[in-house]
Amino acid sequence: MVLKMPKRKYDQKLVSPARATFFDLPIYDVVVTVIAKYLSWYDLYSFSLCSKRCKDIADCMLAKGLDRVTIYGDGKYNLSPYRTIIQTSMRLRSVVLQHMDKLNNDICQKFLTNNLYLEEVKMYSCQAISSDGLLPLRSCTNLTKLSLSRMPIDQKFFKAFNEINNNLVEVNITDLNINAEELREFLAHQPHLEKITIALRDTNIKPCLVELPSLCPKMKYLDIHNAYYTPDVHDILKNLPDNCPKLTKICLSKDEFGYEDEMLIHIINKNCEVALREPDEYDAQEETYVPTFDTESSHSNSSTDPDDLVDSDRGELHFGDELTIEPTKTRHHDGESSE
Q1: Along the 339 residues of the chain, how does pLDDT read in single tens digits?
Q2: Annotated region Disordered: where (predicted)?
């Protein structure tokens, strides 16, 4: 006699289910919220080229998961990568753009309008962007750090910006089309500033500097390298530590002041650190002045300020004619560079 075993229903515990893939992960709860923050914009762009499904997921991560981007241009652009970022991203908190010569006003306006949650904006040598291209920054009410260098920006932008946004904590104004009086007017509407960098060549900064203690009572750091110094400006600088009780560091041009300058010695004796650097090298490392005589408190060499090394964001990417990845060189304090 032959016994037949009864048929058993499908048992999931005995049969291994199909192996899950990346595409089976919850898009928002995992891919956007968790995974996207560990990827650079270039990773997401490269992923979007794999398939249409990958592009849909990458666009979602770019729009809702990417919160910071740093792009370096070199004059040879593959337009698609950065246009993808500009057209897709909507939740950026931090933007750093350098030498983006083909980034014009229209593209910049669209980019900034899509990212109203920005907290930090740094732009260096983006020559095609004028005041009109930056006007959407007025609506970025979370913006606290603004750095603009070597661009055709004039009073039009700063006047419009002050009408809505008065929350800046850090500002860097280097080689823009404004004079000292216009700069003073801008600073007068930014009472929360703690870190100020001003580099205006051939401009007498006295009208701005003389009122700085009352305009910016919270100021802790002042960098006025590459400025036009006059004897009366020296006297103002000498008295700044007394007039700005929260001031802890001043950065000046190395060619204007010597290591044993009486004014520097006076400032250091007021427990305020002094740094000197080359006047024409905005990307150069500061050299902290350390006195060789006894003072009430000792000062040690400080690390380079992030604003002074505009290409120091390690791991960020350059792009040129092809979709190739080039490692950014990292500057060390000893002057050497490494891949």
Answers
A1: 555 545 544 444 444 455 667 777 787 677 777 787 777 777 888 888 888 888 888 888 777 777 888 888 755 445 566 777 777 888 899 999 998 888 899 989 999 999 999 999 999 999 999 999 999 999 999 999 999 999 999 999 999 999 999 999 999 999 999 988 899 999 999 999 999 999 887 677 888 888 999 999 999 999 987 766 777 888 888 899 999 999 999 998 887 777 678 888 889 888 899 988 776 554 444 454 444 333 333 333 333 343 333 333 333 333 322 222 233 344 444 444 444
A2: 291-339
DSSP for 260-315, written as a single string? T-HHHHHHHTTT-EEEEE-TT-TTSPPEEE--SS--SS---PPPPPGGG-TT--TT
Q: pTM for this one? A: 0.72
Question: Residue 177's closest CA among 146, 159, 200, 145?
Answer: 200
Helices (H) and strands (E) in the chain, counts: 11, 14
- Strands 145-149 and 273-277: what pairing? unpaired
3-class SS of residue 182: helix
- Strands 337-338 and 145-149 turn out to be unpaired
Residue 75 is encoded by which pair of tokens? Answer: 């004059």
Strands 330-331 and 120-124: unpaired
Alpha-carbon separation of residue 247 from 223, 244, 331 (angstroms):
11, 5, 28
φ, ψ at 84 (rounded to 5°): -60, -45
DSSP helix, strand, coil percent of the chain (3-state; round to 5): 35, 15, 50
As a whole number of angstroms, the distance between CA 329 and CA 73 comes to 15
d(CA 32, CA 11): 34
Do residues 144 and 172 lie in contact, with contact meaning Cβ atoms separated by under 8 Å?
Answer: no
